Amino acid sequence: MTTAYGDFRLHGFKEPATGLEHAALCFGDLSTGEPVLVRLHSECLTGDAFGSCHCDCGPQLRSALKAIATAGRGALLYLRQEGRGIGLLNKIRAYALQETGVDTLDANRLLGLPADARDYGFAATMLSQLGIRSVKLLTNNPGKIEGLKAHGVDVVERVSLQVGRTTRNGAYLDTKAHRMGHLFDLARELPDEASEADPAR
Ligand SMILES: Nc1nc2c(ncn2[C@@H]2O[C@H](COP(=O)(O)OP(=O)(O)OP(=O)(O)O)[C@@H](O)[C@H]2O)c(=O)[nH]1
Ligand SMILES: [Zn+2]
């Protein structure tokens, strides 16, 4: 599949336990045995496709594809874990609660849902089927590293993916840093000028 970032091989996967259909975009030669630059991207219809200013998902998706193409080899797994695994309708309900001043974590809890319902077992299966055993993971979320390690993937390095902060999603990103353990480099906690000017970039 030709993209704005380069030509990727597109693979589809069906998760037997859930029936969910996931995608993997692969770039370059992944069979050398060297650790592969990998992004596990959790679906965010609002941010990835609609250009929502509520989160940093859209800029992260595009930045990850760019980084993989620039590196010359890598894979982006697009996981259908909308709303951190609670689904689109529940995420919309959680957004409505956030309009009343509740943060992203408490909104899920008020709905009686886990703060993060994601599991990375099938992502590990996808990597294995792609022949990827050792990864450099593009993420700020230590939970993803632990999640992959728990399923036997060798995560040799974390590569920061800190893009897309704007004045409108700052409080959301602060909640991820302070209440959800995300590893943000505080020195870079300033609005990203390019995202501020064009959140859909
Ligand atoms: N429930 C809920 N999900 C959200 C909200 N905002 C974004 N999401 C979902 O969160 C997921 C992305 O998770 P993040 O916490 O932004 O980032 P991450 O994937 O854990 O970590 P990174 O790898 O660093 O990007 C996507 O599935 C989004 O749909 C929200 O306010 N409530
Ligand atoms: Zn998002």
From TrEMBL:
Pathway: Cofactor biosynthesis; riboflavin biosynthesis; 5-amino-6-(D-ribitylamino)uracil from GTP: step 1/4
Native source species: Ideonella azotifigens
NCBIfam families in alphabetical order: PRK00393.1, ribA
Binding site for Zn(2+): C44, C55, C57
Keywords of the record: GTP-binding, Hydrolase, Metal-binding, Nucleotide-binding, Riboflavin biosynthesis, Zinc
Classification via HAMAP family: RibA
Keyword Oxidoreductase: no
Record function comment: Catalyzes the conversion of GTP to 2,5-diamino-6-ribosylamino-4(3H)-pyrimidinone 5'-phosphate (DARP), formate and pyrophosphate.
Swiss-Prot/TrEMBL cofactor(s): Zn(2+)
Enzyme kind, highest EC tier: hydrolase
Active-site residues from the entry: D116, R118
Protein name in UniProt: GTP cyclohydrolase-2
Catalytic function, reaction form: GTP + 4 H2O = 2,5-diamino-6-hydroxy-4-(5-phosphoribosylamino)-pyrimidine + formate + 2 phosphate + 3 H(+)
